[in-house]
Amino acid sequence: MTKEPVPRPSGSRVKALLQKREAEARARQEEIEKASEEVRELHVEPNRQSTLDLQLPLFPEYASAMPHHWTRTTLFASIARGKRKLHHRQQLASRSDFTILYTGQQLDMADNDVFLHALQLAQNQDAGQVIHFVRSKFLEGIGRSASGQNTYAWLENSLRRLAEATLFIESDQGQGLMVRLIKDMAWNKKQDEYWLALDPHIVKFFQQSQIAYIDFEVRKKLRYALSKWLQNYACGHRAGEHHFVSIENLMHWSGSTGRVRDFAEHKERGLRIALAELESHGVIRDWDIYERPNGRKKQLMVKWFRPQKAKELPNEQV
Question: Biased-composition ranges for Basic and acidic residues (predicted)?
């Protein structure tokens, strides 16, 4: 049986088929792009928006703030001038319920003043928003005289140390976050101007129930580095209550070294000197250093009472 030849489509029919296939391909591509856009809207945009919606809270007029967990660490250490170390993923002293791995130059209490004032300038703004300042005014804000190039150089170096600092913070539940203290920075020395943006992730640590509000007017009057560290620590506890802590823990968390009793009794920079200075400015009162039994040994302890003030800051957490 002879097979009949299969009819071939005419040129116009071939062209029509190609156009149909091209239209179908375009329709499929549009569907893919639409689906991809929906995925981006569901997963990327809300995250970005939630970051933009986060803000540092508005502090009391005369205050700055620290996350109260940070006040129990050596992130900003009570160290002598010239004793700065270079850390690489160094685990900082902290409470046992979280860990901080730190990379960068060791930060001291003067660097802490700079960071606290940057937080004052950034409060009530969107997370990561750029803040602008004149460096002479910034120095006045932390209680330093803008007396010349040496002071300007110190401020610039402090800002750079903060910008280089990287923290890997992890809770005892295994939840972690990488944080930079300063995310971006720019400057114009001829115009005496600086611009910087804090890492927006920092805002996550400034929930209302986790903030230690710090009276910055008092802070500018404190002479000793340990007094400033203790001010941070004490402000992380509720006013109107007594606080009890081992001196060994305070020494460990503040970054001090040596013997515990020397830390407590040093005549020039010891704990007694710092406690007395804080009491003179009304931060604490009725403090006492004492011993308590601890097995066969005795443990050196300190207690104090944190008074309420006429213009009291919001209650902090224990």
Answer: 19-32
